[in-house]
Amino acid sequence: MKPILSIGHSAYDFTYLLEAFPTENLKYSLNNGIETVMECGGGPAGNAAYLMGKWGAKVFYAGVIGDDPQGKAIEAEFQSVGVDLSYLQRNIGGRTPFSVILANKENGSRTLFNRTLPYPPLQHEWDSALEWGAILVDGMELEASLKALETYSELPSVLDAGSLDREAEILAAKVSHLVCSEVFAQQYTGQTLDTEASIERAFKQLEALNDNCVVLTLGERGSVYRKEGNLTIVPAMTVNAIDTTGAGDIYHGAFTYGLAAGYDLETTIQISTIAAGLSVEKLGARVAIPAWSEVEEILIESTK
Hints:
By secondary structure, the protein is of the alpha/beta class. It is built from nine helices and 14 strands. Strands 6-5-1-9-10-11-12-13-14 form a nine-stranded mixed β-sheet, with helices on both faces. The chain has a five-stranded mixed β-sheet with strand order 3-4-2-7-8.
């Protein structure tokens, strides 16, 4: 497999597993409403790079972090799974973005508060002679992402489109694979995706934005893509969800891995579905990423 390039956001996550969603004006502590507190790196492109490194791919992460303790912890995490940090930009004297995540044990939902301070954008001139297997962008480093997509325009590329903003809309039209969430689709199309007809209408609008390949993720309802002219659903796994933090990042990382490994689209979506499904059964994002062997075992079993 050729190397993979992941461009975008990293953050440091503080995740609190709550017995139930908090009530206003009360105090919570460990064993008194808070079951567990966990810390680890996060961010869409960062989590995707970590997954691909854990699965044995040669992956390069390009993004910006601070030189504070959280930034150093993120670097150590990347290094532990062999992620190449040649394109990492350290904001000397700056703070690493961080998120506080409330995970509701009752239903597996998560509420996220992100603090992103101003920092210098990623600066890099890409070498056209380099050969990549695939590129992932998450919209957080627009100029660097556009340069990479232009330089390597013939390669498979993925946008992690979690929500709609100017950057995501620009990149959505540039990548070979627009892999977008229900939130992005609803914001872009104005459709409430509650019927087959509304999904079909929204999908056509997304295909007008990106005429290469669109995959729409619908959480527990699975993923939708067009096969031989018809919309096809790949069902989500049946799981006991504890924390959905990072599930989308994990899906996109697995999707990019699948493209770089040469799997067809349907198998790539299945790999992504399995990886994301297994992850929500554990607390946290990176620490919940399953091993490739776990995913492969389920994938093989599903094809029997």
